[in-house]
Amino acid sequence: MKWLTALLLLIIAPLIGYHYGNFYALHVAGLVGIYCILCVGLNITVGYAGLLDLGFMAFCAIGAYTAALLSIKGLSFWITLPVCLLLGGLIRYLIGAPVLRLRGDYLAIVTLAFGEIFRLVANNFDWLTNGPKGLPRVGEKISEIRLFSLSFTNDLQFYYLILFFLLCTLLISYRLEHSRTGRALVAIREDELAAKLSGINVPRVKSLAFVLSGMFGALAGAIYVHWIGFISPEMFTFWESVLLVAMLVIGGMGNIAGALLGVLLLVGVPELLRPVLGTRFVEYRMLIFGLIMIVVIIFRPEGLLPSKRRAAELHAKDD
Amino acid sequence: MFIEQVINGLTLGSIYALFALGYTMVYGILRMINFAHSEIFMVGAYIGFWVLSSLPVFLPGFLPAYFLAVFILAMLGAGLLAVVVERIAYKPLRHASRLAPLISAIGVSIFLQNLIMLTAGASSRPYPEKLPLEQFNFFGAQVSSLQIFIFGLAVLLMFILTLFISRTRLGKAMRATAENHIVAQLMGINVNTVISLTFIIGGGLGGIAGVLNGLYYGSVKYNMGFLPGIKAFTAAVLGGIGNLKGAMAGGFILGIVEAFAAGYISSENKDIFAFVILILVLLFKPAGLFGEEVPEKI
What we know:
The complex is a heterodimer.
Chain A: H1 2-19, H2 23-48, H3 57-72, H4 77-99, H5 104-124, H6 126-129, E1 145-147, E2 150-152, H7 155-177, H8 180-190, H9 192-197, H10 202-228, H11 238-251, H12 256-277, H13 279-299, H14 308-314
Antiparallel strand pairs in A: 1-2
Chain B: H1 2-30, H2 37-54, H3 63-90, H4 99-120, E1 125-126, E2 135-138, E3 141-144, H5 145-167, H6 169-179, H7 181-186, H8 191-217, E4 219-220, H9 226-238, H10 244-265, H11 270-284
Antiparallel strand pairs in B: 1-4, 2-3
């Protein structure tokens, strides 16, 4: 019942907002939706499996660039989307195979390095990506998303499209969390050796989580580029990946509700406050996030909305 | 061309080596990646920038003393900042999981970068040129006095550090703490003091590397620490993280590789090479060239 009310609210509220001409709030809502897909996806790697990924935006970039390049050629979104997902998943798999053997902090640094390599490639390989100027090139256009006779052009239509994909993301993530694989992931996070000894195929399960979360990244990128109609390497810097991690840390790693709360606090609230407090506030935003991140990891490492299991784990006495 | 690239590589390598020592010393003692070290480097460069642009050279003959003051101030400022960061952001997490201090360090990094951006501006600023620049001919290649100065200072500092670690009581205490905190404590070593000392020395060397970087490239910017930071970390891993001589060697190797990659292959993609080296080393030789393979403790 609670969930149904929330869903109805999510469906009806934007219509009212649109009716009264509050377009900015609608745009923010769409942005929050995109970040939710990213964060819930990253949560599978960082939260469930406990693998710190500092280059996640690279997979958002892969989705966005693939969607942009294919749709400029005139392909429909419904064809490019599976291509984006498969390509994102495949690259993630190929990277994961050697990388996932590394232990925690080294894994984080290697994902950072891969993330930066993808950004530098997008920045330097002009023939493919048009370099820092971004896509589409002058005279080109990213084609519209069409569903039967409906074409997606304004923020309201995109809001519903993003909401639909977000609900899919949430459903998959929720089902994963409560599945055998989900429990295996948590077991690996808590003690990799013990998990291995209980018969979990550690490399396979880790790789599955890594690939799945990368596909969510590609999904978010593909929708985003169609919505905004532009993409450049600057959107996928290391600091964007770090911002996603910050959302998870502050919201609560390993918990879907925590991930959503993190997005609301770090994207929703600042964007809504932007017109009220002015651009000066936006400049202080990152400074404040950095501080909150330190305070949270020291005093409440399980985040504001923790998963019960994760909280118990983090507050366990020294073993 | 060849000798010129070697000279460029040695200059770059001097900066990376000094910078990498901070990563490796902290890792040796605390087993953590001090992600905020790149911001200590940046703040060091800014301290040098502020001193150089506000303090005039009183007498022409006092130039060496003047630069000594600049370097000491940058070293002290960066070293103290590193200790403060350790006390606030790392110390409470000493017994937490391995990822907790890394996340905290990233928080520090975001905070310091944005603090400098908000106070000193978002655009890059030219570094004051107070060192007399001369060009020398060295086997047909051009060497500037600045390059000689950077190399000389770096080698001198590394020599002093090596003597300090191997010959003094405090150095011995540091080596003991790196070996085992509990046993070191039982031998009467104040582990907290040793950790603070490590951050002062590592941070101070990072700050000097920042000033040298500013002098060499002629500018400072709030995000200047990130890329050199990754490269210095690569150097530390390349030499075997935790190993001081390894970090020095790794710094010079990386500097020379970068100079040759920029000179012979593609200067636009030289940063990609640095990241590829980092990935390859971590994947295939995580213990580095001079490190020992330590099996994971259960």
